[in-house]
Amino acid sequence: MENKPKFVQSVVCKDCDEPVELNREIQVGEIIECQNCGAEMEVISLDPLEISLIEPKAALIRYAITFLFPPLAGLTAQALSKLIR
Ligand SMILES: [Zn+2]
After folding, report:
1. CA quadruple 69, 72, 76, 81: dihedral positive or negative?
2. How far is the CA of 18 from the centre of ligand 1 (A)?
3. CA–centroid distance, residue 21 to ligand 1 (Å)
4. What is the pLDDT of residue 44?
5. Cα 11 to ligand 1 centre (Å)
6. Domain spans of the chain?
7. How far, in Å, from the CA of 2 to the mean position of ligand 1?
8. Spacing, Cα 48 to ligand 1 middle (Å)
9. Average model confidence (pLDDT) across the chain
10. Which CATH class is domain 1-54?
11. 22 C-alpha to center of ligand 1: Å?
12. Distance of alpha carbon 48 from alpha carbon 44, whole angstroms
């Protein structure tokens, strides 16, 4: 599968159905933000062009994993090491 950037004029927002102007090259995995409603969409494929709405829930989970889990794991390890001592 080719994974070259592709020039795309606009996409239709998955959330509010408004056209989102791009007028630039996009790549698979790129995040597109709707100017109308602020929804974030990920480019799934370019040929055919397919975008997927990033669910707020999924974004939250991603946020949790990125920012909350490592400190929590650190705290748990600290607590465990105190218990062992
Ligand atoms: Zn939108």
Report:
1. positive
2. 6
3. 11
4. 95
5. 10
6. 1-54, 55-85
7. 28
8. 21
9. 88
10. mainly beta
11. 13
12. 10
Distance separating alpha carbons of residues 64 and 52, to the nearest angstrom? 21
Q: Do residues 30 and 21 lie in contact, with contact meaning Cβ atoms separated by under 8 Å?
A: no
Task: Name residues whose C-beta falls within 8 Å of residue 58's C-beta, 6 or more positions apart in sequence.
Answer: none
Judge contact between 37 and 44, C-beta under 8 A: no
Per the CB < 8 A criterion, the answer to whether 19 and 12 are in contact is yes
CA of 38 to the centre of ligand 1 (A): 6
Q: Is the pLDDT of residue 7 over 80?
A: yes
What is the 13 CA–ligand 1 centroid distance (Å)? 5
What does the pLDDT look like over 53-77, one tens digit per residue? 997 776 777 777 888 888 888 888 8
